[in-house]
Amino acid sequence: MSSIYLGVLKLCRAGVNYSTLRRRIRSQIDMALKSRENPVVTKLNSSEFNSIFTEEVLDLKKLFDKYQYEIRVAGGAVRDLLMGQKPTDLDFATTATPQQMKEMFTIENVRMINMNGEKHGTITPRINDKENFEVTTLRIDMVTDGRHAEVEFTTDWKLDANRRDLTINSMFLGFDGSVYDYFFGYEDLQKRRVAFVGDPDVRIKEDYLRIMRYFRFYGKIAESPDKHEEKTLQVLSNNVEGLQCISGERIWVELKKTLQGKFAGDLLKTMIGVGVAKYIGLPENPNLEELDKVLKRAEHMKLHPMSYVAALLRNVDEVTVLHSRLKFSSYDRDLTYFLVVHREDKVSTRPLLPYEKLVLNSKIKQKDSYEYVREVLKYRGEESLLEQFNKWEIPRFPINGKILKVNNVAPGKNYSTILSRLKDIWIENEYKQSVEDLVKFIPDIIKEYDKKK
C-alpha cells in the first residue's frame, strides 16, 4: 500500500475530510442544465409494468392521493422496466416533505420503520403490515464534499433528477405508465450508453463513489466491454484520488456488483487503467498477467467475484491488506485466501484426489470448503474435473475417538495423530476400507509415533 494512501487514510480515519478542499455549493449552472421541455417520453403498459402494482403499492398511492401529494416510482426500477425487466425492488419519490409524510402516516395508523433515513428525506412506511417502501422527498444536494451532501427539499421533479448520478437513473415513472425523463436518459438507455447527468466532473466531485457506480451500471446495460467514452474515462481518472476517503464497505458493495455483472474482467482492467487500484486497497501494480490467464480459461464459467479479486493478488499478505480496506464478509475473505493458496497445479496420479483431500481435511465448515474447491476448479478452468467433483459424494470417515478407545488406544494427544494418519490411508485407498480394515493399522501407527518422540 502506498505511503500516500496510508497518509491520507490516517487523516480520513482521524476525521479530517480530504474532500473539504473540494467542498462546493451547487451553482445556478447546475440548476439550469439543459433539459427536455416535455419530460414525458413514453407510456408503459407492459406485463412487467403491470406486475408492480401489488395491493400494497396501490394502497400507498391512495394515501398520497388522499393528501394531495405527488408520488412516482424513481430510479433503477424505471430503468429496469424500460429494459423489459421486472424490478427487484421499488423506490418512490414524492413532493411531500418528511414531516408531512410522518403526519400523514401517523393519522392513517401506518407504521414507520428505519427512521435514520429521515435526515436525507426518506421515510419507510410498512403498508398493510406486509411490505416496506422507501419514499424520499424530492431534494437538491446544495453543498457536497465528495462523500456527503447537505440537502434542501423541493417540489420540482427536474431539480431532483438533476442531482442524480447517471441519466439512466434519473427518470421517474407515473402510476399511469408515463415515463418522465428530463435529461435524455431514455435515449442513452436505448443506445446502451452510460453518461452522467450534466458535467461528469461535477457529478463525481459530489460523491466519488460514482466512479465505482459508473462501472457497475456499464456492466448492467452496455452491450460490449469497450464502448467507454474516452472523455468520461479521463474524468474518472482525474478524480480517482477522491476514492481514498470513501469507506471500504461502500466501495466493495459497488465493486462486488460490478464483478457479478457482464464484462467483469474487462471492467476490472479498465478500472485499474484509470487508476483506482491503490485508492481501494489493491496493489499499485496488480497481477494483470494472472487475471488475463484466468479470463482466458475460465471467464465463461460464472466465476465468483472473489476469483477476479484473487487473480490480482500475488500472496496472502496482499489479501490481508485488501480485506483491511474493503471489509469482506468472512466467507469472501476466506475464499480469497483459499484461492490464492490453492490455485497452483497439484500433482497426483488421481487428479481429483488433492481436491478431495482439501474438503476432507478442512479445518473450516465442510460445506464452505466444498464450495471453495469448486471455485478453485473454476478459477483454473478445469471443466472436466469440476464436473467430476460435482458428482462426488463426500464420504464419511468411519473412525472416531470412541473407536480408538475400544481398540485400546490410551487417551491423549496422539489421538489426533492416529486419526489423521488413518484418514490419509483411507483417502489414498479411495474410501473403500471399513472400520475393521482401518483399525489393523493402529499398532504400526503407534510404533511410528513412539519412534518420533
Automatic annotation (TrEMBL):
Keyword vocabulary terms for this entry: Magnesium, Metal-binding, Nucleotide-binding, Nucleotidyltransferase, RNA-binding, Transferase, tRNA processing
GO-annotated cellular components: mitochondrion
Cofactor requirement: Mg(2+)
InterPro entries per record: Bact_CCA-adding_enz_type3_sf, NT_sf, PolA_pol_head_dom, PolyA_RNA-bd
GO MF term list: metal ion binding; nucleotide binding; nucleotidyltransferase activity; tRNA binding
Superkingdom field: Eukaryota
A Pfam family the protein falls into: PolyA_pol
Domain tRNA nucleotidyltransferase/poly(A) polymerase RNA and SrmB- binding as annotated: residue spans: 229-280
Domain Poly A polymerase head: 72-194
BP GO terms, sorted: mitochondrial tRNA 3'-end processing; tRNA 3'-terminal CCA addition
UniProt similarity note: Belongs to the tRNA nucleotidyltransferase/poly(A) polymerase family.
This protein's name: CCA tRNA nucleotidyltransferase 1, mitochondrial isoform X1
Species the sequence originates in: Galleria mellonella (Greater wax moth)
Gene this protein is translated from: LOC113519649
